[in-house]
Amino acid sequence: MTEAPLQLFNSLTRKLEPFVPVHPGEARVYTCGPTVYNYPHIGNMRAYVFADVLGRTLSWKGYKLTHVINITDVGHLTDDADAGEDKMEKMAAQQAQSIWDIAEHYKQAYWADVRALNIRQPAQWTVATDYVPQMIEFAKGIADKHCYELESGLYFDVSTVADYGRLARAQTDEGANGLGARIEAVEGKRNPADFAIWRKTPAGETRQMEWDSPWGRGAPGWHLECSVMSGEVLGFPFDIHTGGIDHREIHHPNEIAQNQAHCCTNGLDDPRNSGARIWMHNNFLVERSGKMSKSSGEFLRLQLLIDRGYHPLAYRLMCLSAHYRSELEFSWEGLGAALTRLKRMVMAVEALKARHAELVSASMDDPGAERAGAWTLKQVQGDDWGKLAPAVEKFDAAIADDLNTAVALTALDDVLAAKKVDVEKKASLAQAMDFVLGLNLMGLNRADLRIRPKAATMTEEQVEAAIAFRKELRAQQNYAALDRQRDELAAQGVEVMDGDPLGWEWKLG
Ligand code: AMP
Ligand code: ZN
Question: Burial code of 413-427, b = ≥16 C-beta within 10 A, e = fewer?
């Protein structure tokens, strides 16, 4: 079979570009991680599902992956630019807890969502407060030529680097300054888009998190953190930097400006100067009512989906059904459709497993073990797939085409639906494709997908007993009693699905 070359969309050049690794055979990826001041919403988690699929695709293509995701526990203000309060400090004050406790609690909650969505563990989680000395060193290195001090902190002068804000402008085609207009003025700033790389603690105050620096006691700016952690761990230039599309506006242009200053201040036409060769951004998950928010409307956490009876991997499948660069609208109906699709896949794999006992099941709780079992295209290429060969090619071409997961899923469907093919081959191929998509099809079974909504009053055993009784009533052709029982069950939140083609018979609705 022919291998499709991996092409990725670079937000900086606004073009699909072939992936050419900086270090032959390796792929180094940095993902802007969460600010751990609150639970992530499912929109945030879309960003990590996307980064995970990217990492899995790089593994599939045979690259040795080093993925780093940061945890921001200091410095992110309520506005992405320089306005507002530190998000962490604000939450700590609201909850009357220490910032360290807040950070620990929400980091653990984030990691629980990461596991539930079968996102692989990165090679390293970098925690911002572990890198403050390195941040100070980095700032010292660029301060003379690129920064100036004001009462509130050390500011980066964006006019000192070539082509500041190209990433933001590249998206809109509006000439230069849409960016500065959105940024609140700080007295003394030379350019509206200048930003604090070190925020001084105001005289007479103390912060829960503060460090000494040549510019006084204070805390690092959020943009500085990502420049430093990515460069420290992956080395400049590394291959790919990811984040959500909101980061194209302020956070990533500012990281790029710092990286330019740190390395050489040359123009952005040389991709080495931005720190990463490719900048990739996932589009937003939106609600019909508007932007997803943690503070207004329904706070869509992964746990809320689970409480309502949806398996978290149904949400992952929902994400994969859309291209990562397209906006995705969340709806409960859409999630329901994804769950049904997941059920069909799990049932098809169960049928395969029944026929092919040696299928290994990837454990959700042991991502290390899963990584050891990573599938690469090379492994798959060697075999003669017979009738399944077109599906392999379709899958590889789709995923190599800027991660077209929607089409890759249909290639997996083709494999699962194939008739009169070698079971072992079918099973290995399904497993290989699922390695890239990460739906844990080998580890899931039907019962896992039937989650009891929190509000349901009946236990699973009670429902099963009622369904068994239902079969008796049907055998007796007692339709009046069947109808009555259906209503009684509905009143307790159980919807019976007589003759359900998926054979589920009931769901907790
Ligand atoms: P934050 O914790 O606010 O820094 O956000 C974590 C990640 O989620 C960032 O990469 C954001 O760009 C991304 N993000 C925020 N809101 C959404 C959304 N509604 N859909 C997809 N990604 C989002
Ligand atoms: Zn970042």
Answer: bbbbebeeebeebbb
Region at 352 (left for phi over 0; alpha for psi -120 to 50; beta for the rest): alpha
Q: How many CA atoms lie within 13 A of 177 on its CB side?
A: 9
Pairwise CA distance, residues 131 & 53, whole Å: 28
Ligand 1: list residues with CB < 6 Å: 32, 34-35, 43-44, 46-47, 243-244, 246-247, 282, 284-285, 292
Q: Is 285 helix (H, G, I), strand (E, B) or coil?
A: strand
CA of 33 to the centre of ligand 2 (A): 7
Ligand 2 centre distance from Cα of residue 333 (Å): 33
Tokens of 295: 């503070």
Q: How far is the CA of 30 from the centre of ligand 2 (A)?
A: 9
| Cα gap 11→7, rounded to integer Å | 13
Query: Which of 68, 127, 240, 246 to probe ligand 1 with, by most ligand atoms within 8 A of CB?
Result: 246
Asked whether 377 and 61 are in contact (CB, 8 A), the reply is yes
Mutate to test the pocket of ligand 1, among 38, 41, 44 (most ligand atoms within 8 A of CB): 44
Average pLDDT of the residues of the chain = 88
- Stated pTM of the model: 0.89
Which of 201-205, 341-345, 450-454 bottoms out in mean pLDDT, i.e. has the lowest?
450-454
